[in-house]
TrEMBL record:
CDD domains: PGDH
InterPro entries: ADH-like_C, ADH_N_2, ER, GroES-like_sf, MDR_fam, NAD(P)-bd_dom_sf
Higher taxonomy: Bacteria, Pseudomonadati, Pseudomonadota, Alphaproteobacteria, Acetobacterales
Enoyl reductase (ER) domain boundaries: 14-332
GO molecular function, one term: oxidoreductase activity, acting on the CH-CH group of donors, NAD or NADP as acceptor
Name of the molecule in the record: NADP-dependent oxidoreductase
Organism, as annotated: Rhodovarius crocodyli
Length: 335
C-alpha cells in the first residue's frame, strides 16, 4: 500500500524532505468500515495547516502518520450493509492507495455523473466551499461587483461562475497572463487582474463601480489593494489566505506585516466573515451536488484541473500548489 507520510514539520515553506514515501500494509476494515481504493487524491491548501502543530480548528497530522487528504475511488471490501465492492465513493482517506474508513464519512456517488476526479473539485469540497460561502455570506446580487482571488483555482473558478449565474459583474485576480486569459475567455469572468503587475490601476479599471463582494482566498497584497475599494455594505468572505500560510501570522511572504487599515469597516458598514466548510457544508451536500450538476449540464460551470500522475509525485505537486504552480484544481491520479 503506497503511502506518503509526514516526516517533519516544515519551518516556513515545506520541502520534499518533510515527506516520506513508503510501502505499508493494506489496512483491514473494522466493523462498520469500508476499504477504499483511491483513484484520485485531492491536494488542498489546508494540508499546509495539518503539517503544523499550531493550534487550529483541526488536529495536526502526527509525525510518521499518513498525510491527510480526501480521495475518490471504489469500494474493495465492505463491513457495512450500505456499501458493496465496486461502489464508487467520495471520502477515502489520506495520501495512500488503500484506506479503511468509517462509512459515515463516505458518499456513494454515480460514476456516470462526471469524470471521477471532478468529485474532488467542482463536485467536492472546494466546490461546496464556494457554493456555501457565496450563498450564506457573499450573497452577490445582480449588478453588484464580485472580486474573486485565486480565480483560476479550485474554489475561485466555482465562486466566479456562480457569481455570473447570480448576475454579478465578476472580476478575478490571478497570477500571470495565461491564468487571467483563461479566467475571462474560458470561465467567462468580466475581467481579471494579474496580481504580479501593479494592482491599484488594474482594480480601478476592472471595478469602475467599486467592490460589493470580495471572496478572499489569498490575503497579503491583494487583500490590501481590494479593501479601500469596497462600497458601503460590502461583504468580504474570508475563505483562506494562502499567501500567508508559510509565514508568521499577519505577515506576508517578505515577513512584513500584511493587511489593510480596518477603519472603513465601520464607516462603510462592511461585513467580514470567516467560515470552515466542514462545519455546515456537508449537511447540504446532496442539494449542492444536484445544483452543480444542473449548471454543468447547462454549460454554465466549466472545470479546469491540474492532474499529477502517481502518488509518489504528490509532495512535489503540493509544494507547487503553495507557490501558484497549479493551474486549476490540483488532483493526483493514484496509479
Ligand atoms: P487553488 O486551486 O486556488 O490553488 C492555490 C492558488 O493560490 C494558486 O494557484 C495561486 O494562484 C494562489 N496563490 C498561492 N500563493 C499565492 C500568493 N502568495 N499570493 C497570491 N496568490 C497565491 O486552491 P483552492 O481553491 O483549493 O483554495 C483557495 C483558498 O481557499 C485557500 O486559501 C484555501 O485555504 C481556502 N479554502 C478554504 C476553505 C474553508 O472552508 N474556509 C475550504 C477550501 C479552501 P495564482 O497563481 O492565481 O496566484
Amino acid at each position: 500500500n503506497l503511502a506518503v507520510l509526514l516526516r517533519a514539520r516544515p519551518q516556513g515553506a515545506p520541502v520534499l524532505s518533510d515527506f516520506d514515501i513508503v510501502e505499508h500494509a493494506i489496512p483491514k476494515p473494522a466493523e462498520g468500515q469500508v476499504l477504499v481504493r483511491a483513484r484520485y487524491l485531492s491536494l488542498d491548501p489546508y494540508m499546509r495547516g495539518r503539517m503544523s502543530d499550531a493550534k487550529s480548528y483541526s488536529k495536526p497530522v502526527e509525525i510518521g502518520a499518513v498525510m491527510e487528504g480526501q480521495t475518490v475511488g471504489e469500494v474493495v471490501e465492505s463491513r457495512h450493509p450500505d456499501f458493496r465492492p465496486g461502489d464508487t465513493v467520495l471520502g477515502g482517506y489520506g495520501w495512500q492507495r488503500f484506506s479503511a474508513v468509517d462509512s459515515s464519512r463516505l458518499w456513494k456517488i454515480s460514476p456516470h455523473d462526471a469524470p471521477l476526479s471532478w468529485n474532488l473539485g467542482v463536485l467536492g469540497m472546494p466546490g461546496l466551499t464556494g457554493w456555501w460561502g457565496l450563498k450564506e455570506i457573499g450573497q452577490p446580487k445582480a449588478g453588484e461587483t464580485l472580486v474573486v482571488s485565486a480565480a483560476s483555482g479550485a474554489v475561485g473558478q466555482v465562486v466566479g461562475q456562480l457569481g455570473k449565474i447570480a448576475g454579478a459583474r465578476v472580476v478575478g485576480v490571478a497570477g500571470g497572463a495565461a491564468k487571467c486569459a483563461f479566467v475571462t475567455d474560458e470561465l467567462g469572468f468580466d475581467a481579471c487582474v494579474d496580481h504580479r503587475a501593479p494592482l491599484d490601476p488594474a482594480l480601478d479599471a476592472a471595478c469602475p463601480a467599486g467592490i460589493d463582494v470580495y471572496w478572499e482566498n489569498v490575503g497579503g497584497a491583494v487583500q490590501a489593494a481590494v479593501f479601500p475599494r469596497f462600497n458601503d455594505f460590502g461583504r468580504m468572505v474570508m475563505c483562506g489566505m494562502i499567501a500567508q500560510y508559510n509565514t508568521a501570522p499577519g505577515a506576508d511572504a517578505s515577513g512584513a506585516p500584511a493587511g489593510p487599515n480596518l477603519g472603513p469597516v465601520v464607516r462603510k458598514r462592511l461585513r467580514i466573515q470567516g467560515f470552515i466548510v466542514s462545519d455546515h457544508g456537508w449537511a447540504q451536500y446532496p442539494a449542492f451536488r444536484a445544483e452543480m450538476l444542473g449548471h454543468i449540464a447547462a454549460g454554465q460551470m466549466k472545470v479546469k484541473e491540474d492532474v499529477t500522475e502517481g502518488l509518489e509525485n504528490a509532495p512535489e505537486a503540493f509544494l507547487g500548489l503553495l507557490e501558484g504552480r497549479n493551474f486549476g484544481k490540483a488532483v493526483v491520479k493514484v496509479l
